[in-house]
Design brief:
6 helices, globular
Length: 114
């Protein structure tokens, strides 16, 4: 989960794709589901820190702090929305390869500068 957050900071889209490729097999479906909530927590803490609050999950505070400094409130909110949509897609049993492709696109789109 921290690797995903840090890959978002890279200007190379391949870095994010490389991290997400680890979840491509159907056997990784439960692992990806387990990563959803902690990843959402990192995004939530980053948004809170960007707004001046303290992080709620101390063990992921460093990753949240990096994201808070790198992205705007709007971008962080969009990352939070994507993480919630990921959970919904997993619950609907979306095809794993399509899900990873969507996730890479959605995360990258969330942090693109306008």
């Amino acid at each position: 989960m921290i690797e995903i957050a840090e890959a978002l900071l890279s200007s190379y889209e391949f870095d994010l794709l490389k991290v997400l490729a680890e979840f491509e097999s159907n056997a990784s479906r439960s692992l990806l589901y387990a990563v959803c909530e902690p990843l959402k927590g990192i995004f939530r803490d980053a948004l809170a820190m960007r707004c001046g609050a303290e992080p709620t999950i101390k063990m992921n505070a460093a990753a949240a702090k990096k994201l808070a400094h790198a992205f705007t409130k709007k971008q962080l909110f969009e990352l939070l929305r994507v993480s919630e949509e990921l959970k919904q897609k997993l619950e609907r049993n979306m095809n794993q390869k399509l899900l990873i492709t969507w996730l890479c696109l959605a995360l990258r789109a969330a942090v693109e500068y306008e």
